[in-house]
Amino acid sequence: MTKNNSINNLHGLAQFTLFVSSYLPLFFLIILRQLSENWEFFHWAGFTLFGFQTLILKFGLSSVLVIVSIIGGFGYIQTLKNIEEVAKNGFPVKVKDVKNKNSESIGYIATYIIPFLFQNFSSWFECFSVLFLMAIIYRIYINSSLLLINPLLSFQFAIYEIEYEENKKTKNGIIISRNKYLDDDSSIKLYEIGHKLYFATNNNPQQ
What we know:
The two termini are 22 Å apart. This protein has helices at residues 12-37, 49-86, 104-113, 124-142, 153-156; strands at 2-4, 7-9, 91-100, 158-166, 169-177, 187-194, 197-202. It is built from five helices and seven strands.
């Protein structure tokens, strides 16, 4: 975690792994599609210029996505493990209002993932375009609440927009929590992972 203007932020590698995890289903489908479309080229052609060009053109994007997915997958697991560990030291608050935001993941899939499935990955330009667009989306992702709008996170966590009371002041933010049934008047602990973004744990004597 890094500290910036009194705000806890996930460090760059943690943000990157969360971003990659949100696109793992898409990466998997792109890899399968490129392999199936170019299966006849999937054989050893020796150390030749033609063989190298074929590898880059037909399987370059898949190769990059395999490496990124492995790094992102392991990093995602480690990032969540670290966050859950330090989140035990979060500050206690009283929840005043809760809005379930799990449906945001559906919108994320429709807006940011499905359009890529209709791309053709048979030319240099198309493969480069995918990587270029992913780089742009990444910059948007790490500087917005998309950091918590993650289809993979939704399997384990619930996403909420909450209004809470801290030191007799009313504040708001977006949280992820293992509690799938968070109610008004709940007592929780919040650990900041970005601007008005939090990881929430139950606030009880046993924690």
